[in-house]
Amino acid sequence: MDKDKRQNLKFDSKAVYCPPDEATKSISPPIIMSSSFQYDAEIFQRIIDGARKDVNIYGRCGNPSEYQFEEQMMMIEGADACLATASGMAAISVALLGLLKSGDHIVCDWTTYSSTHEMLDHRLTDYNIETTFVDTSNADAVCAALRDNTKVLYFETIANPSMKVAEVAPLVEMAHERGIVVMCDNTFASPYVMRPLDHGVDIVLESATKFIGGHSDVIGGAISMKSDLLPKDFLEQIRWNTMVKLGAPIAPFNAWMLSRGIQTLSVRVERACQSAAKLAKHFEGHPLVTKVWYPGLASHPQHEIAKKQMPKFGAMLTFDVGDGNRALKVLDNLELCCFSASLGGVRTTTQIPALMAFLDIPEEERLEMGISNGMIRVSVGIEDVDDIIVDFDNALALM
Ligand SMILES: Cc1ncc(COP(=O)(O)O)c(C=O)c1O
Q1: Which of 32, 55, 78, 168 would bridge 199 by S-S if both were Cys, CB 3.0 to 4.6 A apart?
Q2: For the chain, which residues make up each domain, given as ranges?
Q3: What is the pLDDT of residue 53?
């Protein structure tokens, strides 16, 4: 099937379809594990003449399994180009370092993944790239933070752990009027729940480790692009001048695992979203739960925005049990669900943001970001939702 036809398929079909391997006709793509490739005089001349993606040069410069994953990601993100990376953080770092120069400025939402926050707040400042952190749900605050040297507006489509939903269209409009590139991390949503490029975002970043892989057994990331602001070959430029130089490409086996994960993304995430909605409602009426954050609840501050942008609402939710000790007791008493870092797998996983991902951020700053000590974050899996509810109820009773 040609590319145009594939682009016109519905999401689920796009995710499942994979062209047969040309050499063997296998319907599962082969894994090419080689780090080196044999040249002949003609191939060698093409490399000298500047050929890149259309010849295999060396594992770090590109690999057929990596390109296969990139092609599938491009389809499901509705992108014009994609770059696969060693991890979600590699995607974020390569995109930022590929785009920015010393003296540039970023405006970023104040709740992002902790390593992203630290990268912007500490690491990039060493290279004279400054970030202003604002609440991106406040358009006036975003507007006031923009400067002549602002190059990037950055946010997460569903922010961790408050599940805040960024209203994308006005942010894109404000940024594009000033020639600012809009970059967002879509990890908590996944392309099944939201496709930010359809809403005008220029670059979307995914930690494919999460919903795309879906089984908690692989690390990887992806940068996808559809933009009128950036050169069409921007991702190919940064593949060479940034990702290859940083040594951040994905390993072939990981790319293959993620290609496989994409094929079941929609069925897994559909089920998880339905269960998350049921679990959120259950927590809302629970006497031991003080607050619930889930975009699908009418009580969520961005519920109406979420309804328009991502009507499936996602598989992530957070609830509060009052303090850190109580939160720890709940997680320690879970039997079916898992107390663990990360998210997006077939198993329901939980964590305490204040004690885990955000531990390095000073408490005062954390509380200002809306991250209280008793918050428990849940990534809902595909177990039977009634069993998930019983597991949480038992654990809450033992708190
Ligand atoms: C929202 C978000 N973005 C990026 C990352 C980084 O992904 P990775 O661990 O694949 O580098 C994470 C990891 O938890 C995350 O939660």
Answers
A1: 168
A2: 3-259, 266-397
A3: 87
pLDDT one-digit tens code per residue, 285-315: 999 999 999 999 999 999 999 999 999 999 9
211 close to ligand 1 (CB < 6 Angstrom): no
CA distance 184 to 258: 20
What are the φ and ψ backbone dihedral angles of 297, each rounded to 5 degrees? -85, 140
**Atom nearest to 89 CA in ligand 1:** 11
CATH code of the region 266-397: 3.90.1150.10
Q: What is the pLDDT of residues 161-219, one digit of tens each?
A: 999 998 999 999 999 999 999 999 999 999 999 999 999 999 999 999 999 999 999 99
Closest ligand 1 atom to Cα of 219: 10
Question: Ligand 1 atom closest to Cα of 343?
Answer: 14
DSSP H or E stretch at residue 394: helix 385-397
Q: Would the CB of 185 count as within 6 Å of ligand 1?
A: yes
The reported pTM is 0.97
Q: Are 31 and 215 in contact (CB under 8 A)?
A: no
